[in-house]
Amino acid sequence: MGRFRSQLSDGVDSSTIASLLVNFMLSDISAKEAQAKIVDTYGADAISYDTCKTWIAKFKRGDFSLQDAPGCGRPMELDLKLLQSTVEEDPYATTRELAAMLGHAQSTVESRLEKIAKVAKLGRWIPHQLTDYDIMRRVDTRTSLRTLQKKYKFRDTLITGDEKWVPYKTL
Question: Would you tell me how many other CB atoms lie within 10 Å of the CB of residue 95?
């Protein structure tokens, strides 16, 4: 029964509701009236108006199956371990290539890359967290730049923009 079953309240037989909806549709009863009659008989949580409207429209199109169409419902989950190993195997792969390799949408791959803390830098995927070596390197660089600034005031001659540093010197 697929999604149709999940949209009905517990204890209500979906085939009974479906046959009622077909009869209401053939009798030219609106979805609102059909839902009201079903709720009167089976209780307030028997079926929602939206479900009623959707299924009556489906029956009017001539589709009397209660099975969901292929591709309906929540998409399958992307295995994060598989994504991690694929990225480590080919760190230069684009999100489009990764999506094709894994059989998922590009947007899914992009959001899952964020979950496994990978960011694209210089055309490859790298961990977002800094290693101890990277942290020490940044501290050393900061210390040396501070020392240079005290001596030469070099920051006054730099123009920065979008991660680019350009030395500027007037002649």
Answer: 17
Q: Cα(27)–Cα(69) distance, rounded to whole angstroms?
A: 26
Q: Is residue 67 a part of any domain in this protein?
A: no
Which secondary structure element, helix H or strand E, spans residue 51, and what is its range? Answer: helix 49-60
Displacement of CA 34 from its chain's centroid (Å) = 35
Domains in the chain, number: 3
Residue 66 is assigned to a structural domain of this protein: no
Tokens of 26: 């053939």
Average pLDDT, the chain: 82
Does residue 118 sit in the same domain as residue 152?
no
Amino acid in position 17: I
pLDDT of 165 = 63
10 and 41 fall within a common domain: yes
Q: Which helix (H) or strand (E) holds 15?
A: helix 14-26
